[in-house]
Amino acid sequence: MSTQHNSVSEQMNVDTDIITLTRFILQEQQKEAPNATGELSLLLNSLQFAFKFIAHNIRRAELVNLIGISGTANSTGDVQKKLDVIGDEIFINAMKSSNNVKVLVSEEQEDLIVFEGGGRYAVCTDPIDGSSNIDAGVSVGTIFGIYRLKEDSHGSIKDVLRKGTEMVAAGYTMYGASAHLMLTTGQGVNGFTLDTQLGEFILTQPHLTIPKTRAIYSVNEGNSHYWAESAKQYIADLKKPQEDGKPYSARYIGSMVADIHRTILYGGIFAYPADSKLKNGKLRILYECFPMAMLMEQAGGAAINDKGERILDILPKGIHDKSGIWLGSKGEVDRYLTYLK
């Protein structure tokens, strides 16, 4: 009987054994940590609710007047879009109600938030990255990194001012034609797509790996006048014909999540260097650089700063500290390293 059912579903091209994010999380827990408390699994489920809620608001943003600026600025001086404020509130409420999060760092909040209760995790997030592009319909996203609290901690800044190597999970959700979630818990990278009819994230890209090399670079060349000479020379050389007679292709959207999503799927290198105007770079370490670096490394790529140092080995001194970053296919990052010698 079961064989007959399977053959019918196959003939109709209907997958009746889909792996949802919830199922995936529970299966991974059983496989990798059968004696775990399940707190991280519950936290990841709370996160997916936030992603669904944000995706819902982005889809209808123009219809309900959620585009445009809010008239305020965030913790680092960026003008806030209305969706920045909404996304931040969604994230705060989702993490608070999860009862598993003690500390939350958000790009939109000047100070960290410490929740009541016995949560054992700290979450760092940019609730809506790339929001300056939202009015033009460009894909934006949510970036997140998760730490387990230090032993005997009751929730403090020390729980997040740590190296990226101490994160227990990281990822992003990109809101475009579909909502795509990329997730790592330190056991590789898996991609999920939101099925809006089922209301579930479905595993669509298991065990994702980035190509070792790819002749694509992604960088805002409008800032090149202010770059270090090593960066200028590296990009200039990519524009010259390579061994195959073709130069590298330039692909730059201006939304970090969208640019990283393309890079992790197709390969190449993404960069946002520090320069003479922004000596410490523009991207924030805790909730932009660290999560993307962990994802990239878990997919087989690499992530470094302008000095060639591994991003995940940086020890931030403040929750909104910044860094220059180069990440992508390992072969492409290794090539950039030769320009620093």
Residue runs with pLDDT of under 50 for 5 or more positions? none
Output the CATH class name of the largest domain: Alpha Beta
| CATH topology type of the largest domain | Fructose-1,6-Bisphosphatase, Chain A, domain 1
CATH architectural grouping of the largest domain: 2-Layer Sandwich
**Computed Rg:** 20 Å
DSSP helix fraction: 25-40%
The dominant shape is globular
SSE string, helix = H, strand = E? HHHEEHEEEEEEEEEHEHEEHEEEH
Distance between the termini: 66 Å
Entry summary:
The chain is of the alpha+beta class.
Can you give a write-up of this model?
With 341 residues, the protein is of the alpha+beta class. It folds into two domains: 21-207, Fructose-1,6-Bisphosphatase, Chain A, domain 1 (2-Layer Sandwich); 216-338, D-Maltodextrin-Binding Protein, domain 2 (3-Layer(aba) Sandwich). Helix content is 30%, strand content 24%. The protein is built from eight helices and 17 strands. The protein has helices at residues 2-11, 21-32, 39-59, 82-98, 229-238, 256-266, 285-298, 330-337; strands at 69-73, 79-81, 101-106, 113-114, 121-129, 140-148, 169-175, 179-184, 189-195, 200-208, 216-218, 249-250, 269-272, 283-284, 302-304, 322-323, 325-328. Strands 4-3-5-6-7-8-9-10 form an eight-stranded mixed sheet, sandwiched between helices. A five-stranded mixed sheet has the order 12-11-13-17-15, with helices on both faces. A two-stranded antiparallel sheet has the order 1-2. Strand 1 and strand 2 form a beta hairpin. Helix 3 (39-59) runs antiparallel to helix 4 (82-98). The chain is globular. The N and C termini lie far apart (66 Å).
